[in-house]
Amino acid sequence: MTDPIRVLVTGAAGQIAYSLLYGIAKGDVFGKDQPIILVLLDITPMMPVLDGVVMELQDCALPLLREVIATDKEEVAFKDLDAAILVGSMPRKEGMERKDLLRANVAIFKSQGAALDKYAKKTVKVLVVGNPANTNCLIAAKSAPSIPKENFSCLTRLDHNRARSQVAMHVGVSANNVKNIIIWGNHSSTQYPDVHHAKVNFQGKEMAAFDAVKDDSWIKGDFISTVQQRGAAVIKARKLSSAMSAAKAICDHMRDIWTGTPEGEFVSMGIYSSGNSYGVPDDLIYSFPVTIKNKSWKIVEGLAINDFSRGKLDATAAELVEERDTAVSFLGV
Fold first, then answer.
1. Which class for 217: exposed (0-12), middle (13-18), buried (19 or more C-beta within 10 A)?
2. How far is Cα 143 from Cα 125, in angstroms, rounded to an integer?
3. Are 162 and 170 in contact (CB under 8 A)?
4. Cα gap 141→268, rounded to integer Å
5. What is the pLDDT of residue 274?
6. Rounded to an integer, what distance in angstroms lies between the CA atom of residue 49 and that of residue 95?
7. How crowded is residue 262: how many other Cβ atoms within 10 Å of its Cβ?
8. Active site residue: 160, 170, 187, 197, which one?
């Protein structure tokens, strides 16, 4: 057996984590022969709930789970980490201004970034899930100067999976027959789900998604708005935010970082923008199409961007620039 890796999940008493932890602990993410030490961080008032989560993980009797550590202390949680999944964040409360939300989250992710910098391995892979995920990820990365910015990513895989499923349902195939969907930009309602480069395997033949769907107005209209607004639709229906689907997307994202993307396929993730062929400003965490090999991502360059797409890429970039500038102004506070 290989040595265990240390994996942190923050917001570990919350509902996303409750759907996520079993998948990680049973080997769905880091491999079926990779033992795991699971570190669970949450705020002090949630510790009694977290004790119950620990009991349940113990009661699963999982062969790969070597140890579970529950803590409310960053110096314990971030020590010697191989992977960090930062789910916990300040949720937006009714009547809260976006600026106030950003200020509260800057404090959290500045602190966690500094803890990564001080205690974690320099090779740690960090996935930020807590919203606003792109900007929270940027703040964490800026607060951990000794860890390469390439090691930080934010979750847009849920949007990617939502888009993939919408196309699959529209065509009448299973979701694994749709590949190379792209989510560009922010994990917000300005994100751009793009099918211009997607492929659909339909009746044994691979074809462009546009040809398989045969409904351009749907692709440019309802498809985009459905994916953009899906999180809100789930909240309206469940009275709770997406948890099962978010946990599945986290597993997909981290598994691809660990084991790579299949040949000929790319996926979407929010990564540090520093020079790309798509005119996206530098110093943002922006969702791009990427391939992954040896735990390193590479932007898929050279994809044609038409005028329709160009406008969408720029709009979501503008939102991220504004978010970043507001958040960075709080960093020194």
1. exposed
2. 15
3. no
4. 19
5. 94
6. 28
7. 11
8. 187
Name the residue with tokens 């509260």.
Answer: 104
pLDDT of residue 333: 56
197 is catalytic: no
Cβ atoms of 295 and 255 within 8 Å: the answer is no
- The residue written with tokens 């314990």 in the block is 76
Angle, alpha carbons 291-296-297 (nearest 5°): 35
| Maximal C-alpha separation, the chain | 58
Cβ-contact 198, 167 below 8 angstroms:
yes
φ, ψ at 116 (rounded to 5°) = -60, -45
State pLDDT tens for residues 83-114.
999 999 998 777 778 788 899 999 999 999 99
Task: Tell me the residue type at 328.
Answer: V
End-to-end CA distance of the chain: 47
Contact status, residue 140 vs residue 112, Cβ threshold 8 Å? yes
Q: In the prediction, which pLDDT does 99 show?
A: 83
At 117, the amino acid letter reads: D
182-199 pLDDT, tens digit each: 999 999 999 999 999 999
Helix H, strand E, coil C: the string for the chain is CCCCEEEEEECCCCHHHHHHHHHHHCCCCCCCCCCEEEEEECCHHHHHHHHHHHHHHHHCCCCCEEEEEEECCHHHHCCCCCEEEECCCCCCCCCCCHHHHHHHHHHHHHHHHHHHHHHCCCCCEEEECCCCHHHHHHHHHHCCCCCCHHHEEECCHHHHHHHHHHHHHHHCCCHHHEECCEEEECCCCCCEEECCCCEEEECCEEEEHHHHHCCHHHHHCHHHHHHHCHHHHHHHHHCCCCCHHHHHHHHHHHHHHHHCCCCCCCEEEEEECCCCCCCCCCCCEEEEEEEEECCEEEECCCCCCCHHHHHHHHHHHHHHHHHHHHHHHHHCC
